[in-house]
Design a protein that fits this description.
The chain has 246 residues and is of the alpha/beta class. The two termini are 29 Å apart. The structure holds adenosine-5'-triphosphate.
Length: 246
């Protein structure tokens, strides 16, 4: 795979490529032949209803589960599972790290591991509006603040790609918008986000491109404009396009 190949599919610089990823549980394929590319600095939404295969895809990309077939490539070179951690940081849905610790301790711990400066920690805390919960234990955080903490941890990591499962669950519209702003800024600095999202309206707000999944299969991929062209629905919302393709 070369950069030239990737240009034909709509992105200018391929960073990551999944090729024909398949994962079966028994007779059923949770994901079947999933192929896509992601560029540096883009926000790619993996979009689909419950059971579509979004989490399985993120786990297979991160190397947490072994795909039955297919591969992952980094700048055109095969990236074995053992090396995925250096390239991608995966934030699963619904985890609460270090519950009995204070929020500030957790942030300092991760900042220490990744050798981030005090200024960088302060920047991340301010961006995610975590000031008011720094002295709370993680176990006492609301669902939304726990997600902010997870995103803060993600932003402190050095991996070029952040994989996040349902990053907006538990946020109201205003909170979702403020988190989107943080993600967009990080993407502007070259971070790549691959977000599993089941709410199409949220996905439409934040993502540059969409991988539409249903029944473990890719039903469409591209920017909203490209998907509108593909489906012949010139003013279509992501929801209308998804319904047309599935
Ligand atoms: N460990 C497992 N064992 C058996 N089947 C599984 C396992 N994990 C996932 N599946 C199945 O694979 C399919 C895809 O599940 P997955 O969790 O990836 O979907 P999803 O799109 O993330 O769904 P949701 O939005 O509900 O989280 C589902 O049919 C699910 O039941």
């Amino acid at each position: 795979m070369t950069a030239t190949n990737s240009m034909s599919s709509g992105i200018s610089t391929e960073l990551l490529r999944a090729a024909d990823l398949t994962k079966r549980y028994g007779e059923d394929a949770a994901i079947a032949g999933v192929t896509f590319e992601a560029a540096a600095g883009e926000v790619l939404g993996v979009v689909g209803p419950n059971g579509a295969g979004k989490t399985t895809l993120l786990e297979a990309l991160a190397g947490l589960i072994a795909a039955d077939s297919g591969g992952v490539f980094w700048l055109g070179v095969a990236l074995p599972s053992s090396r995925r951690k250096a390239a991608m940081f995966y934030l699963p849905d619904g985890v609460r790290p270090y519950q009995d610790r204070f929020t500030i301790e957790v942030l300092n711990f991760f900042a220490g591991i990744y050798r981030q400066s005090t200024a960088e920690i302060a920047r991340v805390i301010a961006a995610l509006e975590l000031q008011q919960v720094l002295r709370k234990r993680v176990s006492a955080l609301s669902k939304g603040y726990n997600r902010r903490l997870l995103l803060a941890i993600g932003l402190l990591t050095p991996q070029p790609v952040l994989l996040m499962d349902e990053p907006f669950d538990g946020f109201d519209l205003r909170q979702t918008r403020s988190i989107i702003e943080v993600m967009r800024k990080a993407a502007g600095h070259g971070r790549t986000f691959i977000l599993a999202i089941h709410q199409l309206a949220d996905a439409e707000r934040v993502c540059d491109r969409f991988l539409l999944l249903a029944g473990g299969q890719v039903r469409g991929i591209g920017s909203l404009r490209e998907l509108r062209t593909q489906t012949g629905i010139p003013q279509g919302s992501l929801e209308e396009i998804f319904l047309a393709l599935t």
